[in-house]
């Protein structure tokens, strides 16, 4: 299902080839294996504001545990590079260990808000104090390092702290002058970032460095010996003692065996660092490594976190938004500590990551539902303990399996609880009931099972306290795993724009430009599904850089169609009896990353809408929403909601749509509404688009006129919002002047029985497959569209392509398509619709003219141009022919 894109395959192969070359760069017998970048509990003051607000260290890992892990992973020398201090190194030296003293200093540019980390080795306690004084001015800091011959490494050179500002590539020009050694293999970063780092360092010729030094007024000789010769290092960047030593640096020491007899390895290592005799080795950090790191960190937070104190947080520097978020996290952690089962799970998982098998009590206390989860945890512990080389592969599959187990339990229990509700099932409620009933009270005691108050009698009748009792553990466990996976992707791709810019500058390593188009509906009998099926055919024919993804239990995937199997489902009869399928969140992340997507389009607001925003923030990619449906109009037509309740939905939709980087609208009215005061979306983010009809639609079906009575046709969903209750009036008015008129009604829907009772003389046809629609259109004289709801009106375009003129109300989608009195009519009332129909049916010469104009109008909707401009609007620039999508020859000027 996930596979690997050409982009990821090429990047992986290129970087693995580099690592293979690096492994043979020095004679094996003359190399030291050192992890130059790892941390323990003395990294106790994090750079991140939230960590300082919550008084959370970066890790609780004890120094002896880190040392044991490094030794188990066959490192020859120990260093601990904690943030802004070398306390662990001094403690180990006091105990008699031969230690390469090191620390990771957070340094600042004096002329910008940019902060970076710098790894420094071989300093004394006095020099440590001076370095902490100088680190607020990076230039003075680097000058001091050069003066005292202290080797420094710039770790993760493409990842730094920008305080929400986006730096330009000029920052790399300064790095090229200031530093000699670069960490080109960071164990917590992915292949793409590590590959680009290595390629950038390889591109630094002496000529470039000289040009950069002149440009920025920096003399490279002030910062490094032999500044034009760069060296490459690696480090695990491990904070939890799980991966320490699996990634590191090979330090070349000529005649190592003899020299180590009378010289400490730490001194030999310093000489190798100063000389630049280094190469990286080890594992590349993909999302599974960071996911495990965040999972383990969360487990430790839940176990160790103390109340940070409300007053202290309020007085701490930082925005109110940050303080509120940290206050919520603090409360959530304090409540979590009350749930012993969840704490036991987290502790057991933490122990497993460090190779400790679950205790007997943990085994005895696990219910049958969670036995598969315990089995996975045991396998992780056994692999870490006995087969560490396979650990990465095991967690790569084990974490998604673990999430699948606990989320599966969550959804099964949720369905069981909902099935036991004495009241009407949620899925059976009308839209009106759902909106009116589902509300949350402001009093938490009421929310969790207290007596109802006078103000909440219409609020949700779920006993949330009882419901949460059965769902707390699986909900928390699945949320923690999903949150860790989200955080991992977010960290790896947080600087995506910078990486893309650098790849463009280097002329290699550019990320593939591919769109993942998400939808909740693809096989359902509705207009959205029909439009997306037509879109898929165009994507397949022209091989556009788009894949459509949906979730369905039986639908088979095909070219450009990704199908995920659901972990749960539910049906909403109030939304057209559609079944919604929920995909596995971690699998969706894998699909997105491994197939090389870098932008999103979403067609449905419900499940996939939320998942689109999840992916947007996880991978730092642009996301666009394709608006097929006007939900406010739908609710106005199908419910009895009060204006205040409709307005509440409008505000919810506004909040939702504003999260997207662009909105595709199918008509000019909708575009104006979106950019107006009701929705407040910047007009630059709104792009007009259109549907089209397949080229072969109706071409082989002959027009039938002779031997039949004049015929009106309606095609669509038989529901009140589609205006079908206007059809009886229109039909009877026409029949008064054209007695032999026929009305054919095609489709299904909730208003069918009512319409049949009111208009029994019409000819009713059930849902017709798309391929057979031309037969209906070619046997009719006029299509009626009494809907004021359609955002586009595919049936209008279908009819026009079959030379069938259309009468529709002068609103939204149809008015942008129909050229009034040329290929159809735009009317205001049912009476006017009937009048226009009569005039048209009585004039055979007019019919011929308008049929020809109808076909000509449909021909202006070219799939290639519509799709090209849609793709360009997402930022794939080589598809563009104009900077914006305005459909100049597709819209009828009103």
From TrEMBL:
One of its GO terms (molecular function) is glycosyltransferase activity. InterPro entries: Glyco_trans_1, Glyco_trans_4-like_N, Glycosyltransferase_grp1, Pol/histidinol_Pase-like. Keywords: Transferase. This is Glycosyltransferase. Residues 707-856 form the Glycosyl transferase family domain. Residues 526-688 form the Glycosyltransferase subfamily 4-like N-terminal domain. The keyword Phosphoprotein does not apply. The keyword DNA-binding does not apply.
């Amino acid at each position: 299902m996930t596979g690997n894109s050409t982009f990821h395959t090429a990047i992986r192969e290129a970087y693995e080839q580099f690592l293979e070359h690096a492994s043979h760069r020095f004679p094996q017998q003359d190399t030291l294996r050192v992890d130059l970048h790892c941390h323990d509990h003395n990294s106790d003051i994090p750079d991140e504001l939230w960590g300082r607000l919550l008084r959370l260290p970066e890790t609780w890992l004890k120094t002896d545990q880190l040392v044991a892990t490094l030794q188990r992973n066959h490192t020859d020398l120990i260093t601990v590079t904690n943030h802004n201090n070398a306390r662990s190194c001094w403690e180990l030296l006091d105990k008699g260990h031969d230690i390469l003293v090191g620390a990771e200093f957070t340094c600042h540019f004096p002329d910008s808000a940019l902060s970076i980390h710098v790894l420094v080795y071989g300093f004394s306690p006095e020099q440590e104090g001076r370095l902490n004084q100088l680190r607020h001015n990076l230039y003075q800091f680097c000058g001091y390092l050069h003066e005292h011959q202290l080797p420094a490494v710039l770790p993760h050179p493409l990842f730094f702290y920008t305080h929400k500002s986006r730096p330009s590539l000029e920052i790399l020009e300064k790095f090229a002058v200031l530093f000699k050694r670069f960490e080109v293999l960071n164990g917590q970063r992915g292949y793409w970032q590590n590959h680009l780092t290595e390629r950038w360092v390889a591109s630094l010729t002496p000529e470039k460095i000289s040009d950069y030094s002149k440009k920025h007024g920096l003399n490279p000789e002030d910062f490094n010996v032999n500044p034009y010769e760069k060296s490459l290092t690696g480090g695990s960047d491990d904070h939890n003692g799980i991966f320490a030593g699996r990634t590191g640096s090979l330090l070349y020491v000529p005649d190592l065996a003899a020299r180590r007899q009378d010289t400490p390895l730490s001194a030999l290592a310093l000489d190798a660092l100063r000389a630049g005799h280094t190469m990286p080795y080890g594992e590349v950090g993909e999302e599974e490594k960071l996911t495990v790191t965040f999972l383990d960190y969360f487990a430790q937070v839940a176990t160790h976190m103390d109340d940070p104190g409300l007053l202290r947080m309020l007085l701490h520097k930082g925005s109110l938004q940050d303080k509120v978020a940290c206050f919520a996290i603090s409360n959530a952690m304090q409540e979590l500590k009350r749930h012993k089962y969840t704490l036991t799970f987290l502790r057991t998982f933490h122990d497993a990551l460090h190779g400790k098998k679950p205790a007997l009590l943990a085994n005895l206390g696990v219910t049958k539902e969670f036995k598969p989860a315990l089995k996975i945890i045991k396998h992780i512990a056994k692999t870490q303990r006995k087969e560490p080389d396979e650990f990465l592969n095991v967690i790569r599959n084990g974490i998604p399996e673990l999430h699948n187990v606990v989320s599966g339990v969550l959804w099964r229990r949720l369905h069981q609880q909902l099935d036991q509700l004495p009241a009407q099932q949620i899925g059976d409620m009308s839209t009106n009931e759902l909106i009116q009933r589902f509300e949350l009270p402001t009093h938490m005691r009421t929310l969790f099972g207290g007596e109802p108050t006078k103000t909440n009698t219409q609020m949700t009748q779920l006993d949330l306290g009882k419901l949460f009792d059965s769902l707390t553990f699986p909900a928390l466990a699945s949320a923690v795993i999903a949150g860790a996976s989200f955080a991992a992707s977010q960290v790896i791709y947080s600087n995506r724009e910078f990486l893309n810019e650098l790849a463009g500058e280097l002329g290699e390593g550019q990320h593939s430009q591919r769109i993942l188009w998400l939808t909740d509906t693809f096989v359902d009998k509705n207009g959205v599904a029909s439009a997306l099926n037509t879109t898929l055919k165009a994507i397949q024919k022209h091989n556009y850089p788009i894949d459509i993804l949906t979730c369905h239990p039986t639908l088979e995937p095909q070219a450009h169609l990704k199908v995920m199997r659901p972990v749960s489902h539910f049906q909403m009869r109030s939304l057209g009896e559609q079944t919604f399928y929920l995909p596995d969140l971690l699998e969706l992340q894998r699909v997105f990353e491994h197939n090389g997507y870098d932008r999103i389009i979403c067609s449905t607001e419900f499940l996939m809408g939320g998942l689109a925003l999840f992916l947007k923030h996880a991978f730092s990619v642009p996301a666009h929403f394709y608006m097929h449906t006007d939900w406010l109009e739908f609710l106005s037509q199908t419910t009895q909601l009060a204006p205040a309740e409709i307005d509440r939905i409008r505000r919810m939709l506004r909040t939702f749509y504003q999260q997207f980087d662009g909105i595709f609208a199918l008509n000019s009215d909708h575009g104006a509404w979106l950019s107006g005061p009701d929705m407040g979306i910047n007009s630059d983010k709104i792009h007009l688009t259109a549907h089209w009809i397949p080229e072969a639609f109706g071409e082989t079906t002959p027009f039938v006129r002779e031997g039949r009575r004049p015929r009106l046709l309606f095609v669509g969903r038989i529901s009140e919002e589609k205006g079908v209750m206007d059809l009886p009036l229109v039909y009877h008015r026409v029949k008064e002047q054209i007695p032999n008129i026929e009305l054919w009604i095609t489709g299904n829907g909730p208003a069918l029985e009512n319409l049949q009772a009111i208009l029994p003389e019409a000819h009713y046809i059930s849902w017709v497959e798309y391929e057979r629609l031309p037969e209906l259109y070619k046997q009719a004289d006029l299509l009626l569209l009494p809907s004021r709801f359609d955002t586009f009106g595919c049936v209008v375009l279908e009819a026009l392509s079959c030379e069938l003129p259309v009468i529709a109300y002068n609103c939204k989608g149809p008015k942008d398509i129909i050229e009034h009195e040329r290929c159809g009519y735009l009317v205001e009332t049912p009476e006017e619709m009937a009048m226009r129909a009569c005039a048209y049916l009585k004039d055979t010469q007019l019919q011929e003219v308008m049929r020809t104009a109808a076909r000509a109008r449909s021909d202006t909707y070219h799939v290639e141009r519509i799709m090209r401009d849609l793709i360009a609007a997402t930022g794939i620039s080589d598809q563009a022919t104009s900077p914006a999508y305005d459909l100049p020859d597709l819209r009828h000027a009103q």
